[in-house]
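Have a think about this chain, tokens included, and walk me through the fold.
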Amino acid sequence: MRFVLGIALAASLLGTAAQAQQQPNDNSREIKVSTSVICDTKEQMERFVTVFDGNPEKALQTVNTEANSRDACVVATIAYVVGSELGKASNKEGTFQIVQVLVVGMATPAGFQAVVPAPFVSLVRVNEISV
């Protein structure tokens, strides 16, 4: 079964790369891989940014306690496609876009695994330019 999931993920990655080459200015379907904070909802992500003071574990614990869930927000290494912007949030660390992501793979103790695509919410740092 793992072999089949691996082939499916590889085929998906190759298909995306081919599409990106055909349309170099359209990266909306590009699969990215990174270690990120992901939450179930926009409101949970906004709360994470609000309480984040440089200690991600403390901020995650606060949000998860308030949501009465141990995994409403987590840090995970994921393969994902970025969707639409849901809003922006700021704290002393900077300004962030809150974006919808479709998670298609996840790092596990057994290696990187394809998953049933699932929507989550994540952050993208906004590059602020001073003038």
